Amino acid sequence: SRAISLHRVSKVYGRGTRAVDRFSLDIAPGEFVVLLGPSGCGKSTVLRMIAGLEDISEGELLLDGERANLVPPRERGMAMVFQNFALYPRMTNRDNIGFPLRLENPREDSTARVEATARMLGIEGILDRYPSQLSGGERQRVAMGRAISRRPSAFLMDEPLSNLDAKLRNHLRAEIARLTADLGVTTVYVTHDQAEAMSLGDRVAVMRGGVLQQVSTPREVYALP
Ligand code: ADP
Ligand code: ADP
Q1: Which helix (DSSP H) or strand (DSSP E) does residue 104 occupy?
Q2: Ligand 2 centroid to 6 CA: how many Å?
Q3: What is the largest CA-CA distance in the chain?
Q4: Which of 10, 11, 22, 148 would bridge 58 by S-S if both were Cys, CB 3.0 to 4.6 A apart?
Q5: ipTM, two decimals
Q6: Number of the ligand 1 atom closest to the C-alpha atom of 210
């Protein structure tokens, strides 16, 4: 599980938008941090910079104290889950979940790890179907399974519940909390939904217009007069 430190990190796209402006946050190993804020405030950009999908324009990102620009994205051991699931349509769910394992070690039989991962998510029964044959909630469980099958050192989630209906959202929210606690994995979770942020985060980092406005525990927020 990784420590993630951002020190006055900025992102300027092209010659224009300063999407993230001097963002500083230290995330402890195993901590669950939520980035909360309205659409366009820079949450995804922060997540993508942590993952190495986006270069940092200014400032410094440290992973376990090491400068991230020295750690190639593939060696960061980070898994991402997106709003649109992004599953491979022509692979069975079993092959989707096992894909990162096969990439990492093509010769190793991934069956046992895929099945153990599926059990954690309660989706053992749908492994030999295709993503198109699943409900939205099942698809997001497969996407999470693919993300954690390799036991990532950090788990990055970008609005993973936004495409699900309210009932499923609540249900999966509880599963995400349990799963990340069981795995003890550092998690950064992006959402615009305050209730979701408060129920999931050890700490909630509120962003607005590219700027980190405040960081607090849900308990501190509810204690406000
Ligand atoms: P959020 O995740 O909070 O919705 P984003 O990080 O996606 O916000 O976007 C922050 C700002 O950066 C927005 O103004 C957005 O339009 C802009 N932006 C995001 N990605 C790009 C890009 N690839 N090129 C140019 N501008 C971008
Ligand atoms: P120099 O040592 O040449 O003064 P740096 O190595 O500090 O410059 O930074 C070179 C470029 O890489 C800068 O644009 C800087 O913002 C960016 N950068 C610095 N630290 C990191 C990091 N940890 N991850 C990604 N980019 C970084």
Answers
A1: helix 93-104
A2: 12
A3: 59
A4: 10
A5: 0.70
A6: 10
